[in-house]
Write a structure and sequence with these properties.
The structure is a homodimer. The first copy, chain A, is α/β, with parallel strands linked by helices. Chain A has eight helices and 14 strands. Chain A binds a DNA duplex through α6 and α8.
DNA sequence: GCTGCCTCTTACAATTTTATTACAAGGCAG
DNA sequence: CTGCCTTGTAATAAAATTGTAAGAGGCAGC
């Protein structure tokens, strides 16, 4: 299961690719033009970019370079088989592989699978809307931007994520995140930390951490 | 995966070779003239030199001798097929093999692969930015300069490298690098050793060893 | 609107965590 | 033994985090 960004102007082909990949459990975000892609791709982290090279209003290669400026996310190019120079340039722009058109769905799935296996491994990231959490690195991203959290904030976020769909009271949070050894901590402590977390996540409107009046907090929804 | 230095004045050919080798997972640094090569090649360690013999401003053979003064790094020559004397001279200058022009990309890849297999074996060097580590020889280079590390520092660096992408706590480091036989060592020991390592690596800005406040350390990123 | 309760927000000081430095004990080669 | 290098400890400085308290803002019931 991975997040895949697809840039392909042929809508019918795009639809086909999307369906094939979704069948494999991936989430696909499709863009149909260079400009649209530029506007969209930063809104979330992706595990793989699938880029058509020839676009009516730009070039997939340029887009690849743009991606490469800030990340190592793998890139697969879709290109007409007879345009060998495109293929070569694809590697030049930092692409990981290419799929010559026309291609069978099987080839596409295999290539995608291979790249994902190589790059993701068993590495698992948690995503919700524009939020992304990497439990291994203890890193958090919001709209693609890395957000620095303190360990308390990180633990708090993690706790809320693990209890998604449930309302957790401040008491529960205190019990789980603060070692209560007779050393009492004010419940307001939780409020302050929630506030700080919200601030760092840019979550003024409680899209992520939602207050349930009289109860506590819940994540999302 | 290896670092390859390419000296070839024909830019189109150079580009093609670069792309082909990158496809095989190698990193290629290209120089287009004798002088440029002289200035560049010391900035990093390479696993293989690919040298054109005929250059407008110098000679690949001379460059090869220069390389041979300080290292045993393998050298492959690119030479026009009809200049047999070049080929012979190539071996004289310390070259390991030659590839007659014009050559197909396949031949190039095979020869490169063969040489690397022979010289590197499964020997794997770790590189990150300007840092290079040879786990077999326990040697470390920074910006091409060898850095002397004590065994503790080396073990520490290695541990961090092996856990790249993960945050390791001071406790984990202690458990793994210090034989805790009831003989307790202060956690600050780790801090001090990290400090010493950073100093030797010239890593004042934590580009390599990054502190994760409240957690521990992580390598890179 | 008013009241009482719940939640948010803010600034600040205390605490915790990390970095730095100096020093002394131990080890090893000559 | 002597000198040099390594390495842990402890003390100090620097940096970052975190709890508290107090006031502001909301919400529900009346």
């Amino acid at each position: 299961m991975a997040d895949i960004f697809l840039l392909e102007d042929d809508r019918i082909l795009s639809r086909g690719i999307t369906i094939a990949l979704q069948k494999d459990g991936h989430r696909v975000t499709a863009a149909y033009s260079f400009l649209e892609a530029l506007g969209q791709y930063r809104r979330q982290k992706y595990d793989l970019f699938l880029l058509d090279i020839n676009l009516p209003d730009g070039n997939g290669l340029a887009f690849c370079r743009k991606v490469r400026e800030t990340s190592e996310t793998p890139v697969l190019f879709l290109t007409a088989n007879d345009r060998e120079e495109d293929m070569l340039e694809g590697y030049g722009a930092g692409g990981d592989d290419y799929i010559p058109k026309p291609f069978s769905v099987e080839v596409l799935r295999k290539k995608v699978q291979a790249v994902l296996k190589r790059t993701l491994g068993d590495h698992l990231r948690i995503r919700y809307k524009d939020l992304e959490v990497d439990p291994d690195k203890c890193l958090v991203w919001m709209k693609g931007e890395e957000v620095h959290l303190t360990s308390t904030e990180y633990k708090l976020l993690n706790y809320l994520l693990q209890n998604r769909g449930r309302v957790v009271t401040r008491g529960m949070i205190l019990e789980n995140l603060w070692d209560i050894d007779g050393n009492f901590v004010d419940e307001n402590t939780v409020r302050v930390n929630v506030k700080r977390l919200r601030q760092k996540l840019g979550d003024a409107n409680q899209e992520y951490i939602v207050t349930v009046f009289g109860m506590g907090y819940t994540f999302g929804e």
